[in-house]
Design goal:
By secondary structure, the protein is mainly alpha-helical. The protein has twelve helices and no strands. It has three domains: 120 residues, no CATH class; 44 residues; 64 residues, Arc Repressor Mutant, subunit A, CATH 1.10.10. Helix 4 runs antiparallel to helix 5 and helix 4 runs parallel beside helix 6. One of its GO terms (cellular component) is nucleus.
């Protein structure tokens, strides 16, 4: 039963909710001061009940609604580990009130799962329909196949005649009008998406070539990897990055991969002229 309690922090079988479960199962008279002593016993009785596998299955079905595939797989593995569900009509016989409670609660969970799945399924259907419509709008106009028995001159002549003032021009005009309407209607939304994508791109990894140039500079100046302003300007020109990106890269690189030795200041003074730290 512990797996059932631990699947979700808001699960209906949390220990603090057991007084209500006990009361609804017909133990209201005992659900007062001595409820702590009944918790373990009640858990064991529910877990050993023949309908418990059905209860667990109904609960996991609720958790699987809208869950990512990997989470749904884990939940399904947990359900399978409990074995095949017992016959729904089979009761323990020793406690009719607990039998009724288990049957009622299974029905409640199945209804809850249905209510959860309905809007999710409707949203999925709607998004699939929108995706199909957008694919149709973005598809280039198809050209009619050339019959095998037509001469090249006939094909060229007929194509020019059709495209010059026939249905081809009319189709192109309608297609252009539709695209213009869509652009006018969704231009603001597309602009915001473009800005959002550009922000995410800036926050992502640096280009491979630019990163290699920075690594080469890092390897050459490993003893004192603090580029001067002139170094940063040169690196910006060769990598195409802005100074802030370069500065942040060196800060992160030093934090992760560089630790100055105790005699580092003396080695720098003996070998090279002092560098102006750009950070």
């Amino acid at each position: 039963m512990e797996e059932l309690y631990g699947l979700h922090p808001n699960a209906g079988f949390a220990a603090e909710d057991l007084p209500g479960l006990i009361a609804s199962a017909g133990y209201g008279a005992l659900a007062g001061d001595g409820v702590e002593g009944l918790v373990g016993d009640m858990k064991a009785r529910i877990a050993s009940h023949p309908r418990y596998p059905r209860l667990l299955e109904a609960y996991i079905d609720c958790q699987k609604v809208g869950a990512p595939p990997e989470i749904a797989t884990v939940l399904e593995d947990i359900r399978r580990e409990k074995g095949a569900a017992a016959d729904e009509g089979l009761g323990s016989g020793a406690d009719p009130e607990l039998d009724e409670f288990m049957e009622t609660y299974c029905g409640v969970l199945r209804k809850y799962r249905s209510d959860l799945a309905r809007p999710f399924d409707e949203a999925t259907t709607f998004l699939n329909a929108v995706e199909v419509q957008l694919s149709e709008l973005c598809r280039p106009p198809s050209r009619a196949p050339i019959p095998a028995n037509c001469e090249p001159d006939d094909v060229v002549g007929s194509s020019e005649e059709e495209l010059s003032g026939g249905e081809g021009e009319e189709y192109k005009g309608e297609d252009r009008d539709l695209k213009d309407k869509l652009l006018r209607k969704y231009s603001g939304y597309l602009s915001s998406l473009k800005k959002e994508f550009s922000k995410k791109k800036k926050k992502g990894k640096l280009p491979k070539e630019a990163r290699q140039i920075l690594l080469d500079w890092w390897t050459t100046h490993y003893k004192w990897p603090y580029p001067t302003e002139a170094d940063k300007t040169s690196l910006a020109e060769s990598t195409g990055l802005d100074p802030k990106q370069i500065n942040n890269w060196f800060i992160n690189q030093r934090k992760r991969h560089w630790k100055p030795s105790e005699n580092m200041p003396f080695a720098i003074m003996d070998s090279d002229p002092p560098l102006t730290a750009g950070d």
